[in-house]
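Hi everyone,

Forwarding the result from last night's run.
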Amino acid sequence: MQCIVNRRAQFSASHYYYLPELSEAENLQKFGACSKFPGHGHNYVLFISLLGEVDEYGMVLNLSDVKHVIKKEVTSQLDYSFLNNTWSEFKETLPTTENIARVIWQKLSPHLPVVRVQLFEHPELWADYMGNGMESYLTVSTHFSAAHRLAHPRLSDEENANIYGKCARPHGHGHNYHLEVTVKGQIDQRTGMLVDLGALNEAIEEFVIKPFDHSFLNKDIAFFAEVVPTAENIALYISNVMRSPVQNIGATLYKIKLIESPNNSCEIYCTDSEVNNVGNTANQPILATV
């Protein structure tokens, strides 16, 4: 029987984004404050996922051995380092989060059956790398506060109460929503970037946070006048409004995760073949329950 096990590690390091072939002004325009010398630092958190057969001792691998490999090949070299000067790979391609994850894979894969490297730069930004050339995934986490009422406009109050319970009460209720936007793309061979992070954050702010934050979704977002704003439908709506903006900045929207509360969350995977009903006004409103 195959199983994936995960090992956590961490390191603290500094870096900056600067290309010597560009002028100081050009670097500042391209990378913003991240181009300022002598750089800035992060407390990185690393998760290594390993695949293997469960042996007679109930283990895929001896995690003590895994710990020592990760320390020898990665964390002992990166901890308290200036990343730009630590590994030769970062001379060719800058040490962005997504590129650090890629190079960590290269360091560990000769020694361990790695299937994923996940690297958190901080709790609201992380990268996933699965060994596919220069392809990587980058996730931005953000939040908004909004109220909603779960009630289908073509049903009576009694019918809505039977379906949605107390969530159908006439004056609604609110949540502090947490949103994760994951994009997929190719790491640039020189900048190390999958996407311009500033542009991605601006798109999320413009198309999601500004219209959603401190709103009553049923009234303030026109689409939800006819579609029940469940967490599922909100995530579907966000996935549709974010597809084009993400594409316009050179990446592909991969996943939307919406956390409504510590007990409820949903995920929408935005594959090329997927066609969502939300956003298509010709379709009937979606009725989803939570």
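Residues 231-248 form the longest helix (18 residues).

Cheers,
N.
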